[in-house]
Specification:
By secondary structure, the chain is mainly beta. Helices cover about 0% and strands about 65% of the residues. A hairpin with a 5-residue loop joins strand 6 and strand 7.
Length: about 90
């Protein structure tokens, strides 16, 4: 069944999350001080591990070409995070 789910992200440079294959990222936002990704998924699809990269404004990002942009998030603290998913394995 196709459903919209949210997935909590940690604020760290690299992480992996598990989502059903062929998901569609809808948004990444700040919800009550927590970084959250919303995705439209088909829960009948097999799971896959998705590599997430979070980069702060002004931080180095050498391998940008390997990632797809998802969203930019302004936190309550004033920090800004740019969120990407790995496109090249």
């Amino acid at each position: 069944m196709k459903t919209i789910y949210k997935y909590r992200l940690g604020v760290c440079d690299h992480q992996e999350i598990t989502l059903p294959k062929n998901f569609e990222t809808l948004a990444v936002k700040n919800q009550n001080g927590q970084l959250v990704l919303w995705a439209h998924v088909d829960d009948q699809e097999p799971d896959e591990k998705v590599k997430i990269r979070i980069v702060g404004t002004g931080h180095p990002f050498e391998d940008r070409q390997a990632y797809l942009y998802l969203d930019t998030v302004l936190m309550d603290t004033g920090l800004v995070w740019h969120v990407f998913r790995r496109a090249i394995p």
